[in-house]
Amino acid sequence: MSATTEQLTGSEQLTGSIRLTHRSSLALDNLRAFVILLVLSFHSVLAYLQFLPAEPFPFDSPPYLWRAFPIVDSRRWLGFDLYCAWQDVFLMSLFFLLSGLFVWPSLCRRGTANFIHGRILRLGGIYGPAQNALVNVRLGRARNIAKPGQVFNRIHVADIAQAIDAAFAHGADGAFNVTDDAPTPPGDPIAFAARLLGMPPPPEIPFAEAVTTMTPMAASFYAENRRVRNERLKRVLGVTLRYPTFREGLTALHKAGD
Question: Which is the most buried residue in 49, 70, 204, 235, by most CB within 10 A?
Answer without folding.
Answer: 49
